[in-house]
């Protein structure tokens, strides 16, 4: 009887942690999708809350910090018109999450239309009840590139 109770306890713990991770994964994927919309809408207030104060952003033309990224979005120097997400993968390790999105980005960069295939790596950290973005890196890829799950 004690063995049965012990086994059921272990099973319950495993199931509940599995559901918790699934909930966290769903939350992060939705947050990532929301981020693309906020970037398209130039909603720097929501992005300001999402981006950690020490966040770094790596683009094809440079690397910068939070304040410059927000200014670039606000002024339209890069307008992330539409990110079509083709595939998403993620890993959660402790309070850190990495989200990979395979996207086609329609943007206006320096007044030029740009349509580019990227794998975007997003790093998040759980801070209190919120996820904060620590890093966003765009890697240019061929349109046949696939994220390995």
TrEMBL record:
It comes from the Bacteria. Residues 1-23 form the signal peptide. Keywords: Signal. Residues 36-133 form the DUF4440 domain. The keyword Signal applies. This is Nuclear transport factor 2 family protein.
């Amino acid at each position: 009887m004690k063995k049965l109770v012990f086994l059921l306890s272990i099973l319950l713990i495993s199931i509940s942690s599995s559901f918790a991770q699934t909930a966290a994964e769903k939350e992060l994927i939705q947050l990532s999708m929301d981020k693309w919309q906020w970037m398209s809408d130039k909603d720097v207030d929501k992005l300001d809350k999402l981006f950690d104060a020490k966040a770094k952003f790596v683009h094809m033309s440079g690397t910068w910090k939070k304040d410059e990224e927000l200014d670039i979005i606000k002024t339209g120097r890069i307008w992330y018109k539409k990110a079509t997400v083709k595939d998403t993968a993620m890993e959660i390790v402790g309070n850190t999450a990495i989200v990979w999105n395979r996207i086609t980005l329609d943007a206006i960069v320096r007044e030029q239309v740009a349509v580019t295939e990227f794998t975007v790596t997003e790093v998040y950290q759980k801070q209190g009840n919120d996820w904060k973005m620590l890093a966003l890196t765009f890697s240019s890829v061929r349109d046949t590139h696939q994220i390995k799950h």
